[in-house]
Amino acid sequence: MSFDLVFFGGTGDLTWRKLMPALFQAFRHGKLPPGARILSVARDEQSDAQYRQWLHERFREVEGAKRPSDEEFERFAALVHYRRMDLSQAEHYQHLRQWLDERRADTVVFYLATSPHLFTQICEQLGAAGLNHERVRVVLEKPLGHDLASAQQINRVVRSVFDETQAFRIDHYLGKPSVQNLMALRFGNALFEPLWRRESIANIQITLAESLGVGTRGPFYDGTGALRDMIQNHALQLLTMIAMEPPASNDADAIRDEKLKVLRALKPFSPEAVARDVVRGQYRAGNVDGQGVPGYLDEAKIPADSCTETFVALKAEIQNWRWAGVPFYLRTGKRLAARDAQIVVNFRQVPHAIFPGPQRANRLIIKLQPEDGLELELLAAKGSGHGEALAPVKLDLDFDRAFSATNRVGAYERLLLDAIAGKLNLFVRSDEQEQAWRWVEPILNAWAASEEPPRPYTAGSWGPAAASAMVARDGFTWPEEV
Q1: CB atoms < 10 A from the CB of 192, how many?
Q2: Is 133 a catalytic residue?
Q3: Which residues are annotated as a binding site for substrate?
Q4: For residue 295, what is the DSSP state?
Q5: Among residues 92, 146, 234, 386, which one is catalytic?
Q6: Per residue in 138-194, pLDDT tens?
Q7: Per the annotation, where are the binding residues?
Q8: Which of 328, 239, 227, 235 is nearest to 282 (CA)?
Q9: How far apart are CA 206 and CA 366, in angstroms?
Q10: Is 357 a member of any domain?
Q11: Where on this chain does substrate bind (predicted)?
């Protein structure tokens, strides 16, 4: 199958840091279909050779074994081309169409790795140039909009140009192997399904923690914040996958229908609930990995009076039969104690304790990064004496060891290959995405109406103390506090 993949924003950070390295890995693994052409478009005036040299220099920053040798890069670079485009000029889209029509590939994928405010303009121009035919797919990078109204406007324009089956709204967390294994854990095994409900589970915690600060993304991040950047998309997508009912099949819409039901069942936030069940924070100077780091307000290009949140913790409730009364705690933040993404399923205590001493409840830990695996915490007798208290033990499955880390497909690699193949299972449908905005918008509105700034927390900590207090109020703790 021949295909053309066009990156709008071909010189941007996302393209050279994530997308091109992911495509190279697909090339190295022999996963790219034959007859591939990769075209980057941007405003810079460059030749193919100049762009390939620029990309080669960027690839030197790729980590470890993923970095190509010079010979590997040369073979990959032969697939890569470059065109200068002014995205506001209709004739430039006609020139793009002429380039694509040179051979009429079986599939054409447009990847919009640009600022979201350009999405509607690009889609409208593609439609006007006739580049929305049945062989075309368009990939939309997050964040898709700034609020519900802007997201709906983008989706209206996208739907006016492309069929819903042609629109691939990407959330790279859904491409992580551990997230795919979450689906396998739940729906490929009989072990957990009888326990996957309110009678057996006390609470579920989703943590997406970063030790890095905003870096060079200060202006973008200050206009976005942690709620929009991580909760509205990544965290809520993980919540839907952990809480959804079994779909009737592995069909994309069957899966996305069940995810949408979860989003619609989330209890809406009132202003009082936001004050009680949502904590927003902003990091101050501190130490991360033994190094002193500045506070958020001291980062480059951040206004001195910014109230943008770099941390969010909240309590969510799903109002349905399976999950009624089970709190879901979500948190994300920058400059936290560690880079750590995980889902912790805390089971209820046994109804009657017959062994002496404190007994910790069972936990299932689904590790997303930096490790990738499952950990089940059980209690067992030490075996060194009669009547002795139980001790915790762990059953640990490391997916990288089990399935060979060198051959495992990364998130962007998997999603790019799925977009080329036309598989929508791991992409977000427009109604899902809009419902997620509908749920978080009352939080944004409450913050906008409040004069209270984000709570400060020291860089290198696990966030404001109020986040621990929120969970403790229900009798629970975060994983690092166990």
Answers
A1: 14
A2: no
A3: 172, 176, 210, 229, 334
A4: -
A5: 234
A6: 999 887 889 999 999 999 999 999 999 999 999 998 988 888 888 888 898 888 889
A7: 43, 86-87, 142, 172, 176, 210, 229, 334
A8: 227
A9: 9
A10: yes
A11: 172, 176, 210, 229, 334
